């Protein structure tokens, strides 16, 4: 429903982008010896951001909470690992479309079945499909069982014989992931602003009404599901390139849960929120892991507090700054209702375009 | 006048309950056809069957000469049968105009055609604005619909149906919960719409029904008790006994189904046949 973000969001995103692009300039100065290690961390964050953005299309835009999205992430990783030749590098020109085709096809089949359900049943069916692939992959000798499959050579991007960019170079690969994330972000922003995106919003709010208006909602949902799976597949492929292997853990439900937390932490339905969520989650994880062996306790507490204090995630902070929000206590007590009421009164106080805009800002 | 919509033996059961029982119903082109009946008579179920939201257990629905039973809701809507719901059913986060645009775009080639083109966008805007204009909401075009009064939201719902360019409108209690003034406004609106559209109307407000309707079908217990023009329904002894008689005695325009003595089944079928 949000067709234009306030300027501060654009500014922040561009600043973050500039900071990432300039990493080689400031990274070594800040992190010294471990600068290269942090760049690989950042690369992984970019990959998870891509994964989180893909899930936001389902969870935030369409309103379907999936606990099996790692299915497509893992599928991307395994497609690359299985299709890569043993003694030479595969070509990314082939691998990228192949990964998208495989995850898209599987998503079309799975989607036809799971999109018949909603709410808790959607969660359970996506979980079931994810676990089906998890157990298939982790028990089959073809896919290396629980060890997974190693990728001996990272795929290359070449024009004929001449390499275009050297993906083996960590910095180049970092930029490559960054470029992909920016591209996907822009595509999804265009998609959500299009009529197609409006229909998805409508389905989110009231699918029944959309059908009564004359929309074949299943088709729209299926397309969104397939697009989301394709992006997740690409993220999985990048992760496999980064790690050098495909592993069953990449498609387990833990991983699905993790990315869901990134989306919730970042702010559902905003596309840019989950990117921030992925970075925040990974950074927190990094610090907690160094703090204690019992880091999941800290992580869990953080997520609970975040959900209570920031029901709209980090993105909610930016779209609806604290000064304009209801008091913390009010939100803890009344939650959404208070906010909704506030929105209604603000909309009825005055009218005309400005209201449409400001209320649009509030509702993300 | 020619028949636009016709049902034969239309039946829908929920478990053991026959919500709509062997209904023969006919809507003629250009008329306002009201459906009356106590709560639980099957009026809304009948509308849901006509609009494809639930499939019939038995029976046929013929729309402009072709059978449409078994078609899905969105297919029926695209054939030109638009409907509004008993509950207010708008997209609260969108403005009035956006609500209507969403409705107006259904004819633009499904999923593939949903990316915008300038010419189409203009057509959609024109249609959406025209619908708002007809319903007197044009000044509220950019108001977020959740911030409007209940009455305006109900009118927006009609505007959305209009924006889909229907030939036949199925309106389920468009005046439910409205005050006198708003009710009259909507009644005027329906009167105006009846020049261009065929309307099937479920309504409990008797004054409006008798003022607006060309024909009335009275339903009781899932069956058609009587169907005919407004005068014959007003004069009908049977209808008066089961329905209108009660209404005259109370100010409440929603008759309580418990208080209405429906009589025995045999007398119903006598009237129907």
TrEMBL record, chain A:
Signal sequence range: none
Protein location: Cell inner membrane
Keywords, comma-separated and alphabetical: Cell membrane, Membrane, Transmembrane, Transmembrane helix
Matching InterPro entries: ABC_transp_permease, LivM-like
Transmembrane stretches, start-end: 42-65, 70-87, 93-115, 127-153, 173-191, 212-239, 259-285, 297-319
Protein origin, superkingdom: Bacteria
Membrane-related topology note: Multi-pass membrane protein
A single cellular component GO annotation: plasma membrane
Major localization class: membrane
Region (Disordered): 333-364
GO terms assigned for molecular function: branched-chain amino acid transmembrane transporter activity
Protein's UniProt name: Branched-chain amino acid ABC transporter permease
Source organism: Halomonas sp. RT37
Lineage: Bacteria, Pseudomonadati, Pseudomonadota, Gammaproteobacteria, Oceanospirillales
From TrEMBL, chain B:
Keywords: ATP-binding, Nucleotide-binding, Transport
SMART domains from the UniProt entry: AAA
Segments passing through the bilayer: none
Residue span, ABC transporter domain: 5-246
Domain of life: Bacteria
Region (Disordered): 244-273
Biased composition (Polar residues): 256-273
Biased composition, class Basic and acidic residues, residue ranges: 244-255
GO terms of molecular function: ATP binding
CDD domains: ABC_Mj1267_LivG_branched
SUPFAM superfamilies named in the record: P-loop containing nucleoside triphosphate hydrolases
Name the UniProt record assigns to this protein: ABC transporter ATP-binding protein
């Amino acid at each position: 429903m949000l067709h234009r973000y306030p300027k501060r969001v654009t500014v922040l995103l561009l600043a973050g982008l500039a900071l990432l692009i300039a990493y080689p300039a400031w990274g070594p100065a800040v992190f010294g010896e471990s600068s290269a290690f942090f760049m690989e961390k950042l690369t992984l964050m970019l990959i998870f951001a891509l994964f989180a953005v893909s899930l936001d299309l389902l969870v935030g835009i369409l309103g379907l909470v999936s606990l099996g999205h790692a299915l497509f992430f893992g599928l991307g990783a395994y497609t690359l690992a299985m299709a890569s030749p043993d003694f030479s590098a595969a070509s990314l020109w082939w691998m990228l479309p192949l990964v998208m085709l495989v995850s898209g096809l599987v998503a079309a089949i799975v989607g036809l079945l799971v999109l018949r359900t909603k709410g808790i049943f959607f969660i359970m069916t996506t979980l079931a499909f994810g676990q089906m692939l998890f157990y298939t992959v982790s028990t089959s000798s073809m896919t290396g069982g629980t060890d997974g499959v190693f990728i001996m050579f990272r795929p290359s991007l070449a024009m004929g014989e001449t390499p275009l960019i050297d993906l083996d170079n960590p910095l180049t690969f970092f930029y490559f992931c960054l470029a992909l994330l920016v591209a996907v972000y822009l595509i999804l922003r265009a998609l959500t602003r299009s009529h197609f995106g409006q229909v998805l919003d409508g389905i989110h709010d009231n699918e029944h009404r959309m059908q009564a208006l004359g929309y074949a909602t299943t088709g729209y949902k299926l397309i969104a599901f397939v697009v989301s799976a394709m992006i997740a597949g690409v993220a999985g492929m990048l992760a496999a390139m980064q790690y050098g292997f495909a592993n069953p853990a990449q498609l387990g439900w833990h991983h699905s849960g993790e990315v869901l937390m990134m989306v919730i932490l970042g702010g559902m339905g905003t596309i840019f929120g989950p990117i921030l969520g992925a970075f925040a989650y990974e950074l927190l994880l990094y610090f907690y892991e160094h703090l204690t062996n019992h880091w999941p306790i800290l992580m869990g507490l953080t997520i609970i507090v975040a959900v209570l204090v920031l029901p709209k995630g980090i993105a909610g902070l930016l779209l609806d700054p604290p000064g304009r929000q209801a008091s913390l206590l009010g939100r803890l007590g009344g939650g959404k209702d208070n906010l909704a009421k506030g929105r209604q009164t603000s909309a009825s106080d005055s009218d005309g375009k400005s209201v449409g805009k400001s209320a649009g800002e509030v509702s993300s | 006048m020619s028949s636009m919509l016709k049902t034969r033996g239309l039946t829908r059961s929920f478990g053991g309950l026959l919500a709509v029982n062997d209904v023969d119903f006919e809507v003629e082109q250009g008329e306002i056809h009201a459906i009356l009946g106590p709560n639980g008579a099957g009026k809304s179920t009948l509308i849901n069957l006509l609009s494809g939201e639930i499939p019939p257990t038995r029976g046929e629905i013929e729309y402009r000469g072709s059978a449409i039973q078994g078609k899905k809701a969105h297919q029926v809507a695209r054939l030109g049968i638009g409907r509004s719901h008993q509950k207010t059913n708008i997209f609260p986060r969108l403005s009035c105009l956006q609500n209507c645009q969403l409705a107006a775009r259904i004819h633009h080639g499904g999923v593939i055609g949903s990316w915008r083109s300038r010419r189409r966008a203009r057509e959609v805007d024109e249609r959406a604005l025209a619908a708002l204009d007809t319903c007197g909401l044009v000044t509220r075009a950019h108001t977020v619909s959740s911030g409007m009064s209940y009455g305006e939201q109900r009118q927006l719902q009609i505007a959305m149906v209009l924006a889909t360019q229907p030939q036949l409108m199925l309106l389920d209690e468009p005046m439910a919960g409205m005050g006198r003034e708003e009710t009259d406004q909507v009644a005027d609106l329906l009167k105006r719409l009846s020049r261009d559209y065929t309307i099937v109307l479920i309504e409990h407000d008797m004054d409006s029904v008798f003022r607006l309707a060309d024909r009335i079908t009275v339903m009781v217990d899932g069956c058609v008790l009587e169907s005919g023009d407004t005068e014959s329904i007003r004069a009908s002894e049977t209808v008066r006994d089961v329905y209108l008689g009660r209404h005259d005695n109370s100010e409440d325009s929603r008759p309580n189904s418990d208080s209405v003595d429906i009589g025995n089944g045999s007398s119903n079928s006598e009237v129907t046949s």
